[in-house]
Amino acid sequence: MIRDVTRLKETPSQTAGPYVHIGCTPNFCDIGGVYPHDLGSKLITGDVTGERITIKGTVFDGTGTPLKDALIEIWQADSAGLYNSVNETRGTADANFTGWGRSPGDMDTGEFTFETVKPGAVPFRDGRMMAPHVTFWIVARGINLGLHTRMYFEDEAEANAADPILSKIEHQNRVPTLMARREEDGVYRFDIHLQGADETIFFDV
Amino acid sequence: MTAPADDRPAPGGESEPHFTEKKHSPGQTPGGQRDKFGNSFYMRDRAWHPPALTPLYKTSVARSPQRAPLSFATTISEETSPVFGNDVLGPLDNDLIHNFAKDGAGAIGPRIVVYGRVVDEANRPVPNTLIEVWQANAGGRYRHKKEGYLAPLDPNFGGCGRCITDENGWYEFRTVQPGPYPWPNGPNDWRPAHIHFSIFGHAFAQRLISQLYFEGDPMIWQCPIVGTIPTPEAIETLVAKLDMGATIPMDARAYRFDIVLRGKRQTLFENRMEGL
Ligand SMILES: [Fe+2]
């Protein structure tokens, strides 16, 4: 028997506005001395296990213009597929890896950069494995509700083909919008398009 | 190999994680997913939140996804999130009047305390979660190099602060009441006085950014950004209430602002806190 208790309504979202960096990365925008450093600037805090990678990318609007006032956050498992979270019940994640990163993007180009490790696979709800992926959350002026998406790895073709979410996407021709491209050793590019022919698949999750 | 589990109906008659592009009628909250693998978070009610495309807020036009988002029940990737302990907090992080001020000075403006409780949709408190805030100064000016409003900077006001909820979900910070400011949108648009909030919760699915407004401000109902929210009922939940009972006499007035994050379905047999 299920009791669905009376539910409150979630606090409605509002845009992060043009000055989200004041609140979330104040040192980046010259508000020094309040916090010792900006949260999320380092995912790797020590002698981390796993393959070190760099994720780079740019968020583009519908005209092809890069966003320079966005805040991009990522959340991912460690190289063994464990999350550094109180809700992780399968084991203990690498103590030298937070799994969470936050970037205000480059001041001049808007390009974001994350120094991280390649995540391990984590299970779907039914126990099948999901392909290695990094969760992205994008907020900015003009974005009324933070956008969720995932970055998968182009060079994980076999795992991607078996991924329970990727394989369920109706428009398979859009799946490449979720793929990070290996550019050079250890560098993956993941550009995000808010609109247009290459519009990234965003998640209602 | 057998058929994938998600091709079968789940116990209880509910379908497995669905991938459809569902339409919800206003005011209705779509249900959380329940299957033999446990409870996921209630789906976000997208008729309650602002839609992506809101042409009266012009910047949304080129920044709003045009295709329907992909819906699926939360997985462990969305049911986990980073944790921040009180060790990240400095002693003045929750005091915007003093955290940027020099030599014992303080920020100029009406002194206020903002406090409230963070709960989830099932009205369970959300303890130990990080809240970050940012705002303009009392004249309506942000400390940012892209900001050109006439109102002067306050040398003793930075405009950012943060706090962590206690074991019962309560939070509190002290600041000066921000001023309204004009912004380039229509020919004469003004933001009502507001404080921006960023809240983590305990799961990436709960991650939320919103804004607090102040009770009695007539500018609320003229703002195109406030107006992106579809209903007055939803807007009212962003209006902090003056709370004279919590005022600090001869020091600061108090405004109460409660926050609701997404929650998970509860059942009668659930005797323990699950997920949170
Ligand atoms: Fe603002």
TrEMBL record, chain A:
<dbReference type="InterPro" id="IPR012786">
    <property type="entry name" value="Protocat_dOase_a"/>
</dbReference>
<dbReference type="Pfam" id="PF00775">
    <property type="entry name" value="Dioxygenase_C"/>
</dbReference>
<dbReference type="GO" id="GO:0018578">
    <property type="term" value="F:protocatechuate 3,4-dioxygenase activity"/>
</dbReference>
<comment type="similarity">
    <text>Belongs to the intradiol ring-cleavage dioxygenase family.</text>
</comment>
<keyword id="KW-0223">Dioxygenase</keyword>
<feature type="domain" description="Intradiol ring-cleavage dioxygenases">
    <location>
        <begin position="55"/>
        <end position="83"/>
    </location>
</feature>
<protein>
    <submittedName>
        <fullName>Protocatechuate 3,4-dioxygenase subunit alpha</fullName>
        <ecNumber>1.13.11.3</ecNumber>
    </submittedName>
</protein>
<dbReference type="InterPro" id="IPR050770">
    <property type="entry name" value="Intradiol_RC_Dioxygenase"/>
</dbReference>
<keyword id="KW-0560">Oxidoreductase</keyword>
<dbReference type="InterPro" id="IPR015889">
    <property type="entry name" value="Intradiol_dOase_core"/>
</dbReference>
<dbReference type="InterPro" id="IPR000627">
    <property type="entry name" value="Intradiol_dOase_C"/>
</dbReference>
<dbReference type="GO" id="GO:0008199">
    <property type="term" value="F:ferric iron binding"/>
</dbReference>
